[in-house]
Amino acid sequence: MSDDDLSRGEKLKAWLGRARYLAEEYYSAPYRGAIARAKRDEDDLFMLMVFSELMGVPNPVGYYTLELQPLMLERFHDWHLRMGMEHSPLDEMRCC
Fold first, then answer.
1. What is the C-alpha separation between 5 and 68, in angstroms, rounded?
2. Helical H runs in 1-96?
3. Pfam families this protein is in (predicted)?
4. 93: Cβ–Cβ under 8 A, 6 or more apart, which residues?
5. Helical H runs in 29-68?
6. 3 state DSSP class of 73
7. Which tens digit of pLDDT belongs to each residue from 26-80?
């Protein structure tokens, strides 16, 4: 195999990689916003599940979600603002 064949193969591989990237962008771009909204909705629901016991809502998986609360605190402020609550709904925890 000569150097020309190797470089031609590499060029073809690079071109195919670029073509695959452009095709993925072409087909996925119209749905990117919808996918981001769906992910945010799922994250908001998960946040509600994690902090539901603190808000007085019975949570059957509260024992398991208790460990996640410290990890979710960084996003709690953004979440309650997005849910339309100006201040933290939790009496024990003030984030703003």
1. 55
2. 3-28, 32-51, 62-65, 69-82
3. DUF7990
4. 54, 73, 76
5. 32-51, 62-65
6. helix
7. 999 999 999 999 999 999 999 888 888 888 888 888 888 888 888 888 888 888 8
Q: Is the pLDDT of residue 96 over 80?
A: no
Tokens of 54: 């603190």
Task: Kindly report the length of the chain.
Answer: 96
DSSP 94: -
Measured CA to CA, the distance from residue 31 to residue 44 in angstroms comes to 20
Q: Which DSSP category does 30 fall into?
A: G
Residue recorded with tokens 């019975």: 58
The tokens of 58 are what? 């019975």
Give the side-chain half-sphere CA count within 13 A for 8: 5
80, amino acid identity: H
Structure token digits, residue 44: 């908001």
The single residue listed with the structure tokens 């100006």 is 86
